[in-house]
Amino acid sequence: MIRYATAAEVEAALGRAMTCAEATWFQYSATMPDYWLWWHTALVFLVFYTLTPLPLALLEHLAPAVALKYKLQPRVRLSPAALFRCYRDSARLVLIVMSPCLIVFYPIVKVMGIIRTGLPLPSIWEIAPQLVVYHFVEDYLSYWIHRLLHTKWAYNSIHHVHHEFRAPAGFAASHSHWAEVLILAIPTFVGPAVVPCHVTTHLLWFSVRVMEAAETHCGYDFPFSPAKLIPFYGGAEYHDYHHYVGGHGQSNFSSIFTYCDFIYRTNKV
Ligand SMILES: [Zn+2]
Ligand SMILES: [Zn+2]
Questions:
Q1: CA 130 – ligand 2 centroid, Å
Q2: What burial class does residue 78 get, using C-beta atoms within 10 Å of its C-beta: 0-12 exposed, 13-18 middle, 19+ buried?
Q3: Which neighbouring-strand residues pair with 233?
Q4: Rounded to an integer, what distance in angstroms lies between the CA atom of residue 109 and that of residue 105?
Q5: What InterPro entries does the database record attribute to this sequence (predicted)?
Q6: Which own/partner pairs from 119-126 qualify as long-range (CB within 8 Å, at least 24 positions apart)?
Q7: CA distances from 167 to 138, 149, 174, 246 (A)
Q8: 71 SS3 class
Q9: What is the distance between the alpha carbons of residues 118 and 1, in angstroms, rounded to a whole number?
Q10: Which of 184, 171, 166 is nearest to 92 (CA)?
Q11: How far is the CA of 157 from the centre of ligand 1 (A)?
Q12: pLDDT given for residue 121 in this prediction
């Protein structure tokens, strides 16, 4: 919640006029409690998890001939009903697990000052390095968690659910055991805990992660994908191989980049 009642008070405190983005944020968030702004994380998950895989799912259904030449495992086709079931069950599970966690951890977030909600909004020069740090923290921690999930007990008890789809689709990105949803949320939240940010940066970071996860699980390798321009980025082909090999696989554990697999000699493809 912003502690000023009017735009004029905010501008007096800032010593300048609000930018367009700041005026929009002020109008949207001025009377909202901070815990509700923090809970937007769940809302962001739902919106991006619903919308990101949708164009490819529609393309595959409406124009399969166009999509097929880029499909990594062209012989595997998931029916629209199977895709919808996967989406519905995954989205419901993540929301059921995430919502109480966001509420439980909110007091810690508040006391430790991990997230701020007021004005001014962060500049691009603040956001960009934060997102870089969050990516590397996420990538390193999730690499080791994913490796642990491939030990015999953890795989048979937890991670086998995620590997149900040997040819994944975007909607299968969060198809996981509830314990995995919890465990793999840790690397996503550690970055902002280490380097505190504005809640809008946190929501941006979360939306980027949901889109990246959908992209790496999409099952298609498009040569014109902008992700191919990012050095050491794994992408769909890289993670598709991990799913194709299945539970016995001990390679391509990274969730974003490939450097951990390269350093620890677990990279293939
Ligand atoms: Zn795995
Ligand atoms: Zn996966």
A1: 25
A2: buried
A3: 257
A4: 6
A5: Fatty_acid_hydroxylase, Sterol_Desaturase_Related
A6: 119/2, 119/10, 119/13, 119/14, 119/18, 119/22, 119/25, 119/26, 120/14, 120/22, 121/19, 121/21, 121/22, 121/25, 121/198, 121/200, 122/197, 122/198, 122/200, 122/201, 126/197, 126/198, 126/201
A7: 24, 19, 14, 10
A8: strand
A9: 7
A10: 171
A11: 13
A12: 96
What tokens appear for 94 in the block? 């993540």
Q: What is the pTM of this model?
A: 0.94
- Cα distance between residue 74 and residue 190, in whole Å: 37
Segment-wise mean pLDDT, segments of 10 residues, the chain, 269 residues: 82 93 94 94 96 94 88 90 95 95 92 92 97 97 97 96 94 96 95 96 97 95 84 92 88 94 90
In 10 A of CB 71, how many CB atoms?
19
77 token code pair: 């086709």
Q: Looking at this protein, which amino acid is placed at residue 35?
A: Y
Tokens of 217: 């699980």
In 109-213 the beta strands, taken as DSSP E runs, fall at 115-116, 197-198
Phi-psi region of 235 (alpha: psi -120 to 50; beta: other; left: phi over 0): left
265 torsion bin: left (phi>0), alpha (psi -120 to 50), beta (else):
left
Place of tokens 């010593």: 15
- Measured in Å, residue 237 CA sits from the centre of ligand 1 at 14
Q: Nearest-CA neighbor of 118 among 19, 16, 25, 11?
A: 25
Ligand 2 centroid distance, CA of 163 (Å)? 7
- Ligand 2 centroid distance, CA of 92 (Å): 18
DSSP tag of 116: E
